[in-house]
Amino acid sequence: MAAPRNENIREKIISAAENLLASEKMSDISLADIAKEAGVSKGTLYYYYKNKNDLIFDITDKYLDQQLQDLLTWTEDASKDTSMHRLIKYVLQRDVETANLRLHLFSDSAAGNEQLRKRLLQRYKDFASILTEKISERTSEIPPDYLSWLLLILSDGLFIHKTIGNTMVDIDSFIANSEKYLELIAK
After folding, report:
1. Residue 169 Rama label (left phi>0; alpha psi -120 to 50; beta)
2. pTM of the predicted model as reported, rounded to 2 decimal places
């Protein structure tokens, strides 16, 4: 008998996988582990997810959709200072704060998960496009497409250094200085 479709169950499965990802690599987590964590049978899990990639895609989409929506909400909030230097600070802080899941996505992509790699690259392209648009609304001094990729690459580097515990880089200070220096350049 097929399990009933229920978005709450799908969300339970995604949340369980996210909980496990907080302390383990996706490659070390089985679908049985996720089913147990979610409190559902393996059959129910397989009803929603035929394989681990499908689950990774949903987690990736949830994470990246939320990050994009947060950026759009922030940049469109007329009550906030969303000027160029504040946008830079927002993107860098937000990306560094949400590093854990991206690290898993990078790791699985680099380890040979070609479907995930392609999907991640497409999402980067989409995010860079929106970021370029938001930057172009704020400055014409620096090419917006260059600055959007600079911010994305910089934030990835910062989260890697945060993850490996590099005490030689004060990330908060680095972000504040980046905001300040890019503000000077963009004037």
Report:
1. beta
2. 0.78
